[in-house]
């Protein structure tokens, strides 16, 4: 079983289809690149996985955890998925690693 399995993910904005029935399996340790032109749904996909955008259909299932938003609340699901936004709102006085680690250290009280 895949660590993260996405089936028939659908996202629309009005009549505009941003994600039409996407299937994706990610294995533990696998590195994936989501590549495409501006406006093709890359950020929307990441936001749906993290529950920041409401999907219109499909499922997002994590191995040994269950379906996000169904077996596990979106709040609890977000604790299982890391996301770094593509904007420039990072803390300028911190390096990249410090910016990435800030959430787990502060919110989850993890050690560096």
TrEMBL record:
SUPFAM superfamilies xrefs: P-loop containing nucleoside triphosphate hydrolases
Domain ABC transporter: 21-106
Gene Ontology MF: a single term: ATP hydrolysis activity
Tree of life domain: Bacteria
Keyword Transport set for record: yes
Pfam (any one): ABC_tran
Record keywords, A-Z: Transport
Keyword Transport on entry: yes
Protein name according to UniProt: ABC transporter domain-containing protein
